[in-house]
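Here is the promised in-class demo. Please do not try to memorize the tokens; focus on the logic of going from shape to residues.
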């Protein structure tokens, strides 16, 4: 096996093991020893790829944006895009340990030696992009600020997924996200435009397992 391919497999094994550790124990509870044991690698191999536990955690956090990615064509970015993105993330939270770990680490990163709010700001920015497009299309009430709504949506999603984790181990997360949008949409969309949007997600079966977490239909 070529050296570069072996190195990539080792890095993947480390991230997979770290995701499991952080998902189950959090940043403070997980240790490098746990990650090394889970990955089946040597300490030297781990330090070849990552200088610290915090660097591993930040690599996992950065992966969230392979999921929260709207279509490249701005004409395809709508308010429904934001709804579908949230459902894609919800399903990934239920099925993907790396996504679960990344979300937990974003919330816990106040315990990092160099915490950064960039991940949370990026989530807000992605939803803001969808809302600004919605405003141009006449699908957002004109007196509302897309930044304010995006901040509210991300805060609501964060609360919804935590509640779902605590109460049902996220078994009901898609239902809770749907309810979040059913409550939110009438407050931000002109009444005559509400019929355009599906709070349960558009073609939800495709939203569940897309390559990048986004329905592009």
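The designed amino acids, position by position:
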């Amino acid at each position: 096996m070529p050296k570069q391919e072996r190195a990539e497999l080792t890095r993947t094994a480390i991230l997979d093991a770290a995701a499991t550790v952080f998902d189950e124990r959090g940043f403070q509870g997980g240790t490098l020893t746990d990650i090394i044991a889970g990955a089946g690698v040597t300490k030297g191999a781990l330090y070849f790829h990552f200088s610290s536990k915090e660097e591993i955690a930040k690599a996992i956090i950065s992966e969230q944006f392979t999921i929260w990615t709207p279509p490249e064509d701005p004409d395809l970015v709508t308010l429904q895009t934001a709804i579908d993105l949230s459902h894609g993330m919800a399903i990934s939270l239920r099925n993907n340990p790396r996504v679960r770990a990344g979300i937990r680490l974003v919330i816990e990163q106040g315990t990092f030696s160099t915490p950064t709010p960039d991940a949370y700001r990026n989530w807000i920015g992605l939803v803001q992009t969808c809302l600004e497009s919605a405003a141009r299309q006449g699908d957002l009430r004109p007196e509302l600020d897309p930044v304010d709504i995006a901040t509210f949506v991300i805060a609501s999603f964060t609360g919804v997924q935590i509640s779902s984790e605590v109460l049902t181990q996220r078994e009901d997360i898609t239902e809770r996200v749907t309810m979040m949008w059913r409550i939110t949409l009438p407050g931000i969309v002109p009444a005559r435009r509400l019929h355009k949007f599906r709070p349960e997600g558009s073609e939800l079966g495709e939203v569940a397992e897309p390559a990048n977490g986004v329905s592009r239909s």
